[in-house]
């Protein structure tokens, strides 16, 4: 019985998939961000967590491998307004206190799908999905 090389089969399958996708005119996706939207929000929570290291032990033949995994410090700030954001950012963590009012800037993220429905070489937008919000900025509002 002949041996089958898994990588050879995978490589041929991938190439066939790419060729079929190219010939059939695959869907195209594009991401779009809106203009920046600003709103007033309040810092409702600040949370710091220390980094840590864990180890995974993996048997490997007659020996054992130890693989470390390190996590960095966390400095999370939660902004609450029409849209709530929790951002892990040391600068924001140090700049704001709980209860501060801020001018929050964010963008809306959309994914558009385009497909050549008429097979005329022109791709029409067939679907738009809202993916979420992208944090942009936060500036403290000084109350006089």
Would you give an account of this structure?
This protein has 144 residues and is an alpha+beta fold. It has one domain. It is built from 2 helices and 8 strands, in the order αββββββαββ. Strands 1, 2, 5, 6, 7 and 8 form a 6-stranded antiparallel β-sheet that branches. Strands 3-4 form a two-stranded antiparallel sheet. β5 and β6 form a beta hairpin. The N and C termini lie far apart (85 Å). Residues 20-24 have low confidence and may be disordered.
Radius of gyration: 25 Å
Could you say which structural class the secondary elements and strand pairing correspond to? alpha+beta
The share of residues in helices is 10-25%
SSE string, helix = H, strand = E?
A: HEEEEEEHEE
Q: Assign an overall shape.
A: flat
Number of contiguous helices: 2
Cα distance spanning the termini: 85 Å
Query: What low-confidence regions span 5 or more consecutive residues with pLDDT below 50?
Result: 20-24
Tally of structural domains: 1
Mean pLDDT level: 83
Largest sheet: 6 strands, antiparallel
Number of strands: 8
- The portion of residues forming beta strands comes to over 45%
């Amino acid at each position: 019985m002949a041996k089958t090389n898994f990588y050879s089969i995978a490589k041929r399958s991938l190439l066939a998939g790419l060729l079929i996708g190219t010939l059939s005119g695959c869907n195209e996706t594009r991401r779009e961000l809106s203009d920046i939207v600003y709103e007033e929000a309040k810092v409702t929570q600040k949370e710091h967590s220390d980094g840590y290291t864990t180890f995974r032990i993996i048997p490997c033949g007659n020996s054992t491998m130890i693989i470390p995994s390190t996590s960095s410090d966390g400095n999370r700030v939660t902004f609450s307004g029409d849209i709530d954001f929790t951002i892990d950012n040391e600068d924001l963590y140090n700049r704001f206190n709980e209860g501060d009012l801020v001018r929050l800037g964010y963008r809306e993220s959309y994914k558009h799908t385009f497909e050549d429905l008429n097979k005329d070489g022109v791709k029409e937008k067939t679907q738009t999905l809202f993916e979420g919000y992208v944090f942009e900025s936060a500036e403290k509002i000084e109350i006089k």
